[in-house]
Amino acid sequence: MINTANGMISQSSSSANAQSPGLKTYFKTPEGRYKLYYEKTYPSGLLHYAHGKTVTQATLAHLKDKPAPSTPPAPPSSFSASSGVRSAAARLLGAGNGSRALGFGGGNGGSKSLSGSSRMGSLGASSSSTSLTNTNFDGKGTYIIFNVGDAIFISDLNSQDKDPIKSIHFSNSNPVCHAFDQDAKDGHDLLIGLNSGDVYSVSLRQQLQDVGKKLVGAQHYNKDGSVNNSRCTSVAWVPGGDGAFVVAHADGNLYVYEKSKDGAGDSSFPVIKDQTQFSVAHARYSKSNPIARWHICQSAINSIAFSTDGAYLATVGRDGYLRVFDYSKEQLICGGKSYYGALLCCAWSMDGKYILTGGEDDLVQVWSMEDRKVVAWGEGHNSWVSGVAFDSYWSSPNSDGTGETVMYRFGSVGQDTRLLLWDLEMDEIVVPLRRGPPGGSPTFSTGSQSAHWDNVCPVGTLQPAPSMRDVPKLSPLVAHRVHTEPLSGLIFTQESVLTVCREGHIKIWMRPGVAENQSGNSETVLSTSSKDKSLLSSKVGSSSYRQ
Amino acid sequence: MGAAGSKLEKALGDQFPEGERYFGLENFGNTCYCNSVLQALYFCVPFREQLLDYYSSNKNIGDAEENLLTCLADLFTQISSQKKKTGVIAPKRFVQRLKKQNELFRSYMHQDAHEFLNFLLNELVDILEKEAEASKSDPESLSPSEKTANGPANGQANGVRKEPLVTWVHKNFQGILTNETKCLRCETVTARDETFFDLSLDIEQNSSITSCLKNFSSTETLNAEDKFFCDKCCSLQEAQKRMKIKKPPHILVIHLKRFKYIEQLGRYKKLSYRVVFPLELKLSNTVEDADIEYSLFAVVVHVGSGPNHGHYVSLVKSHNHWLFFDDENVEMIDESAVQTFFGSAQEYSSNTDHGYILFYESIGASNKS
């Protein structure tokens, strides 16, 4: 009880005014200042005893125009065409958001009519309002979905309201992970995994249209842990998987489901013969859901991530191993051990060439798919690394086609309450290590030189932990204390960086000069894992440095 | 108590490790500091085995004088030879002996578990050294104490003279730090070695043990008032100083300095900082790039908001299960529960259970020791 009271006090004091003592509201990068724009959190009255036992995760969801009459029907046959339409719509929307954001400084009179979501907010807040469904609500916009205690909260990313516009409470168990399908053509697009192992899929739009505090129109999988009763740790939609999704559990198993099937069929799986070996079992009946079980390891899978094209699935876990699977072939491709301790998070580069991991050795690890090994360790966090992400919206200042500098920007957050930004330049990393012929080409090529570093590891094997001296080190570009609580995640959007702390506070940091170059970028979709973007940027990315 | 015991047995079921005993220790009025450390030491398997070996090879001279070593060996034997698998034992003789030996621990006041551990290990070493000394001066009475002094694993090291005696306590816990000082004028590096049984680390809010270890070994510049006397320059000079681990111990004991003297207050204050500790750890501040891996097997936890009162409990890993020892109570806990003892990310919190002493054992093919 005391805990709750204290939690609320500290929460309200730290989030009521952005300027928590000792925390700056901006940080500097070579491109300019990132400014704290606004914060999102849960309503303080809703704190529960269970709070603190779960870690807040955040998912970004971009809802397009209602697929009803207003939108011109996209040609269903051609994917690329439809994605073009989508990103065009998003560009318009993005500009709208930006101007609205600017307008807030003076007074939000003009923007009111624009934001259907703020109307929604007032509806949700007044609990006295009757059970009318908001039929006017078109639902388009960008939302942050985050879990705190026994609830899922949904906030409008582009409104300044600190409070969420929607809360969904779970009576049986706490929600701990979620995922949104940017490309869902119809039906359910939001997955929610619970501490009990249960999983729900719902339509986000439907939740926003409903004024209640319960999940509506949900499909329930692994009911009461019938398939697996260990905690859900991570859920993900299979990119381009036509409604297929995977759920990772704390016992080292991962299940593949299809949202089109209900979970009625018998979905028992054979006993795992060798607990130490990776194995995949398929459901015996075609009606079964889940349709497959992947036994990955004997301890918790902490996080999973699909490459943007859906070809590969990366998992990290308690045993400290990163594992990369060919998803359709159900094969282990490569992987390796952390320096020490569990790995907690992972993320792919948009072009699928690198995987970032973070963990209990305080290191940010850069894994190369080409080399199938660790190519760099980022040193700079003073505690465990709990979130990593590539900044797919960032473009290198000298990416003018010279091809000399391969550059990526990525970010990491840790339990040290800090956000770190890093530049990854493969040339700089590889050259000092390579004791090859002097004057050799500085380009990054495979399997040429002599050093042991150039040996490519065989497919399907896991690498042991490298020793400290063998891995090149990176230093952060920026290290900024962003919250008072340990952090749990970060998300890059076109306009901003979102930092999320374990206790359910989210801060939105605007990129430098975001107002001016609103339309300067070709990638506009406000999301992390949109496929439209992936296709675009993977092309852009590769052409810019693969000479 | 009996019910708790059977509950633990039920929880473990047929997974109850063969030959293992899980016994709570009775509290004789603020002796939890002692109980928590004793449990950690009992589940430090190499230490326990060597102590029991020592005890069995010294049984025949049973009427030898009682000391802390014999009392500890007695207690461990008593636990390990219980018929029942779980229950409660009163460490009466040990606590009496401890109070007799050291007036610090005589009162009923709240005591510091780290001070106790330190005192106990040094006391054990003293006793073993004295015994070795005695057997050397009296060559007639050979084997038992001689053998134990050198450790059962290393019987032939007799001929070594004047070398500091390496007892089995040393072999488990002792590491060597080297204090490197580099004169900034002549650039001469002076290295001074010192031994340790545990590392006491300064802690920071929202940090990790890895980071605290890094700070421990970070380079410090000696200047202004605090210059270094360089033997080569024969004068006070600015210098750079750093501590490195020259020989990592087999059992790495890390003490978090949670009790800090606050000058303004004129008293000690407990730092409830959140300091995360991984279940596996490597030391990177070593002289050689050894990359020795350690695995966490025990945590002594201080419960309470201040330094002068509170409670001690311990978490222990035994045969891949985590157990929670709170004086006479023993419970099984999930590995993930260990993280509830990291500390508080905010100053005022109702969570007052904080990891205080961490016990790591080196794993894998350890080349030395």
The overall average pLDDT of chain B, rounded, is: 86
The largest sheet of chain A has its strands arranged as: 1-2-32-31-30
Overall residue-averaged pLDDT value of chain A:
76
Radius of gyration of chain A: 23 Å
> Oligomeric state of the chains?
heterodimer
- Shape call of chain B: globular
Protein name (chain A): WD repeat-containing protein
Organism (chain A): Melia azedarach (Chinaberry tree)
Keywords (chain B): Hydrolase
Organism (chain B): Melia azedarach
In short:
Chain A is built from six helices and 32 strands.
Throw out a few tags for this protein.
heterodimer, A: alpha+beta, 5-stranded antiparallel beta sheet, 32 strands, B: 369 residues, alpha+beta, 8-stranded mixed beta sheet, globular, WD repeat-containing protein (chain A)
Report on the architecture of this protein.
The complex is a heterodimer of chains A (547) and B (369). Chain A is α+β, with helices and mostly antiparallel strands. Helix content of chain A is 14%, strand content 33%. Chain A has helices at residues 2-16, 79-103, 116-125, 204-209, 426-433, 531-545, and strands at residues 26-29, 32-40, 58-63, 141-148, 151-156, 166-169, 175-180, 190-194, 199-202, 219-221, 232-237, 244-249, 253-258, 279-282, 292-295, 301-306, 312-317, 321-326, 331-337, 343-348, 354-359, 363-368, 373-379, 385-390, 407-414, 418-425, 461-463, 473-474, 478-481, 487-492, 496-501, 506-510. Chain A is globular and about 55 Å long. Chain B is α+β, with helices and mostly antiparallel strands and 369 residues long. In chain B, helix 2 packs across helix 6 (113-137), helix 4 packs antiparallel against helix 5 (92-101) and helix 6 crosses helix 7. Chain B: This is Ubiquitin carboxyl-terminal hydrolase. Chain B: Keywords: Hydrolase.
